[in-house]
Amino acid sequence: MKEILIAFPHPNIRLQRSLLSCIVIWLFVFTGLCGCMVQSVQAVAFTPTDVGTVPDSTSTEIRTPESSPVDLRPTITPSPSPEVCVENHGHIEDFEIANDIFSYPIRTKIYFPPCYSDKPEKPYPYVIMIHGMLFDYEQWDRIGADEAADKLISSGEAGPFLIIMPNEERTTANPNEVKFGSAITESVIPWLEKNYPVCTDRTGRAIGGLSRGAGWAVHIGLSHPEIFSSIGAHSFPPFTGDPQATPHWLTETSPDEIPRVYIDIGIADGGMSLARQFEQILTAYNVPHEWHINNGEHNEAYWSAHVEEYIRWYASGWSQPDPPQILN
Questions:
Q1: Which of 6, 213, 275, 321 is most buried (most C-beta within 10 Å)?
Q2: CA quadruple 293, 299, 301, 307: dihedral positive or negative?
Q3: What is the reported pTM?
């Protein structure tokens, strides 16, 4: 049977041992009831000395004649090393999302990053990217969005994320007369967040688009700041009525939900004047945004040349703690 001695500066050793028994019983009962507090025991230093020796100053020692000193420190199990991803390429899958808005499913492509897991250490952020007029959901794949994401993720410049590419069937219809925006917020996002391990907070969601898709991104993003934290508008023509609605959207948005915005356009793009006017509204309302004028026109050659910049900007929103400053 173990014998435990606690030495105190008192000449009566029997009293010490009686006192020890009470303390030991209390210690084990307390530790058993309050396991989460066991780390507090670590603060006591135990130095073995000769049995029966009464130190000159108060000290505490625990020792047994038949075993090593009792170690009350909690056992720490090393965390397993994270798995190293050896893949350089993600993949794209096609889906049809049922909804109550249209009489047909929403065709959607989803880019999954290299080494995608159904049970990641933390949820994946994602960006919804909308195609332009007279095109379909193949467009972002065709101009290289997935290759740009592969490059940034496999190099370690960006963490893994998903790209959601929904299809708008009626690209020539008046956007104020179709409910594509509602289909995104009420059908695509709930379906995605129910079936995949993605972020369900606005800080992990972004939306972007090119040409008409850029108009949708701004319309949806600014009217739903509680859903998206970043908006990308590439070769951006604002929808009719949105420049007038934007001040109302912004004044109704709480300061901590004002999204960051990226607008770019080719210098030979016919929509330059409208895009510039919208950028001036963002500046007037102190919305954090970037405004880029590049060489190029309103075509896929322009978007292909800049798609990596777009993807890098979206990914930066999931890693930087502070919003960017306004850049002109």
A1: 213
A2: positive
A3: 0.73
Q: How many angstroms separate the CA atoms of 228 and 208, rounded?
A: 10
Q: 91-316 has which CATH code?
A: 3.40.50.1820
Q: Which two tokens stand for residue 125?
A: 């952020």
C-alpha gyration radius of the chain: 31
How many angstroms separate the CA atoms of 260 and 281, rounded? 14
Across the chain, where does the E strand assignment appear? 91-97, 106-112, 126-130, 162-166, 205-210, 230-234, 260-266, 289-294
Domain ranges of the chain: 1-77, 91-316
Question: Do the beta carbons of residue 257 and residue 226 sit within 8 Å?
Answer: yes
A 10 A CB-CB count for 264 gives 25
Which helix (H) or strand (E) is 305 found in, with range? helix 300-316
pLDDT for the residue numbered 87? 87
pLDDT grade for 83, boundaries at 50, 70 and 90:
low
167: left (phi over 0), alpha (psi -120 to 50) or beta: beta
> What is the residue type of 3?
E
Q: How far apart are CA 293 and CA 291, in angstroms?
A: 7
Question: How would DSSP label each residue in 231-255?
Answer: EEEES--PPTTHHHHHHHHHHTS-G
Q: Are 261 and 231 in contact (CB under 8 A)?
A: yes
Average pLDDT taken over every residue of the chain:
81
At position 255, the amino acid (one-letter code) is P
* Residue 197, both tokens: 């391990």
Tokens of 225: 């700041």
Smallest Cα–Cα separation from 221: which of 196, 245, 192, 197? Answer: 245
3-state class of 302 per DSSP? helix
Task: Tell me the per-residue pLDDT of 222-240, one tens digit each, with 9 for 90 and over.
Answer: 999 999 999 999 999 999 9
- Tally of CA atoms within 13 A in the half-sphere of 142 that contains its CB: 13
